[in-house]
Every structure is written in structure tokens, then in C-alpha cells.
Amino acid sequence: MVDLKDLFVRSPWPHQERGVREAIQAIDEGHDRICVTSPTGGGKSVMMMALLFRCLENRQKAVVYQNRRALIDQFIRVFEQEGIDFGVRASSFKEHRRLLEDIQISSVQTEHSWVYRSGRYDLHAADLVQLDECHQQTKDVAQQLFADHDCPKVGFTATPLDISHMYDKLIVAGTKQELRDCGALLRADYFAGPEIDPSKPKERDYQSNGDFSPSAISKLFSTKAKTVLSAEVIKWYNIINPLGTPTILFAPGVKESLWFAKQ
Prior knowledge:
By secondary structure, the chain is an alpha/beta fold. The chain is built from nine helices and seven strands, in the order αβαβαββαβαββαααα.
């Protein structure tokens, strides 16, 4: 019997160890649609790796579905550092296309092309399927993958919203307070400056989650509003950050970001 901590690439935080333990327990109990949620910064990739190492210990096959090249690159680096044999099922990673390896990193878009459009390949015969950023992988292709993989599926996300049609078991692997307690997140001081008048947007300008839609926020950036907002941003930047240390300003869009940068 492998010690749970031996599955991690480094000493795990308590919430990571708990998340992996509960995921394994859910799989052993017969759940096959499991969502593991942890706040941004909680180390979801580390938990995913631990489940993959368990597959290797049990001589099982697994596939990790990604939808961004940067995330595929991240997993490749870790696998290479740990000396793990793996393949990549993604069109732009020909140097790693070793399709007979037990562990595969796969692009959802490539699977759609290879398996469902051209019929060039079959799905990887996995004993475990993992989906990273699973809140972004809920459309037709992801649902088809779920239906065609007859094995446990485990999704990972920081925002488990609108995914109940994909998952029937939720595991909360850490709260923001737990992440602050273990040092994964830094404690922060918050300052509230002037805000956009919420009476201005119409009901149609709100999204289902209660936030303004990007288009509605952009409309508020009239010349007058820009001047007021810019003045307040500069004012509070100087009050809160008099030394001018590196700062990030989140603007509604690219156009507004460029405008603020010019100011």
C-alpha cells in the first residue's frame, strides 16, 4: 500500500492531501464524475499529479485533458523533471507524440479533430480521466469525451459553476482561509475607492452572476467617465502606493487598458 504523501512531488499542504484522499475515496466508492475545487493558488496541478502517480503505481493508464498550450507545457516540464514516461496528444507537440505510453496529456481540440472528425485515432484507453480548468470544458466535445470514457472522470477548477450536468460529486480541497493559513496565499489589505454608479446600466446589462457585462462597462467609459475614473485611479495610486512599487491595473478591456496606460 503506497503512503499517500509518497504520491506528491513535494510535501503537500493539508488541503492538497485531503483533496487527493477524498478523490481516491470517491473513486473507490464508485463515483465516476468527480469535481475537485480549490481556490486559485491552491496547487490543483499538484493534486492532479498525485492521482497520476497513483495510476502509475497501480499500473493503470490515465489521460489529462487540457485546453491551453501553457498548461500542457507545465505538465510536460513536471513529467520530465520526475522522469515519467508520457505522451502528448496535441497537434503542435509532435516531438512528444508517443501514443503508446500509459500516461497521456491531451488537447481537447486535438481529440475533437483526431477522434471525432477524422477518425484518425481512438481515444486513449484510460483508467482515469482528468480535466483541468473543467469549468471551461463543458460543451459538446467534453460531454462526448465523458460519455466515451468508461472510467472515473475527475475535473479540477477554482470556479465550479454551471457544471452540475457534468459532475455529481464535489470535493472542496481548501478554502481561501486554509490557503492563507498554510502560506499558499498572502494576506492582503483592501481599500475601496469610488465605484461606477450601478443605477446607470439597464437590467439587460447584467450577467446571470450579477456582474456587469463587459459591453456594459465599456459603454460607461464615455469621455467624461474616463476622466473621472482616471483621476481617481491616479489619486488612490499615489495615496496607497507612494513609493510607486509595481502595480497591476485591471481595466474592462484592451481598449480601456491602452487608454489607462497612456494616461
